[in-house]
Design goal:
By secondary structure, the chain is mainly beta. The chain is built from three helices and twelve strands. A hairpin with a 4-residue loop joins strand 3 and strand 4.
Length: 228
């Protein structure tokens, strides 16, 4: 209320009990708009108390002492992308020009399942060119009386070039190193079905004597090559 004045007695207590007031304490006049708190002291601001560190630390084990930080490895999708599969093969020394290549598996009897005389089968469960291990390409020497793509594979000489075109339109060239005739029960399996060694190529077909009762050749012709 305008003009209203309040008289406040401020007691200064020196060596007296609570609530005591000196009789000669002066009177203090305050405007009504002034607020003075005499009921309690202002609250102190909260403080953070740091927790004391443990007084002892467990000894590091011998195994933990061997652990070293090696940093962060960056993922490179290109390193994990599937290698392009072969789509055609050219062997000029055998007059094989851009013979189509298709992925194949094996038959119930365990032989490579090459579909026809003019097709080369790539064993799709093995390595592709440029991957570690041996890429296996197989074709018929003869199929139902029709000459197959690898009819003259036995005549391939060391030093001949073999060009394998890939699905990404690039070409991997190989150099033939040796050609041999092997009994089907005595194949050099470590060279043919190799998935972990150096990249290589083997051309695979039938050969040797034809067993009319089984309608199958008794041997296989294998030509080995290395990438260049």
């Amino acid at each position: 209320m305008k003009g209203f004045r309040v008289v406040l007695l401020v007691a200064v207590v020196v060596g007296a009990s609570c609530g005591a007031r000196r009789a000669d304490a002066p009177a203090v006049e305050l405007d009504a708009t002034t607020v003075v708190s005499v009921l309690s002291p202002p609250l102190a601001a909260p403080t953070l108390v740091a927790q004391a560190p443990p007084t002892s630390v467990a000894a590091m084990s011998e195994l933990a002492a061997l652990v070293r930080f090696l940093g962060s490895a960056e993922y490179d999708a290109a390193e994990h992308a599937a290698a392009p599969q072969p789509v055609a093969v050219t062997i000029e020394a055998l007059a094989v020009i851009e013979a189509p290549v298709l992925p194949v598996g094996v038959t119930a009897s365990g032989e490579l399942d090459v579909p026809g005389p003019d097709i080369v089968g790539w064993y799709e469960f093995g390595p592709s060119p440029r991957e570690t291990g041996t890429t296996v390409l197989a074709a018929h020497v003869n199929f139902n009386g029709i000459d197959g793509v690898f009819r003259n594979l036995r005549k391939l000489e060391a030093g001949s070039f073999i060009d394998v075109r890939l699905a990404d339109r690039s070409t991997q060239r190989y150099l033939a190193t040796d050609v041999g005739l092997f009994d089907k029960d005595e194949l050099p399996t470590s060279r043919v079905w190799n998935r972990t060694g150096r990249p290589g190529l083997v051309l695979f077909t039938c050969g040797g004597r034809f067993n009319a009762s089984l309608r199958s050749f008794e041997d296989n012709v294998l030509a080995f090559a290395i990438p260049i």
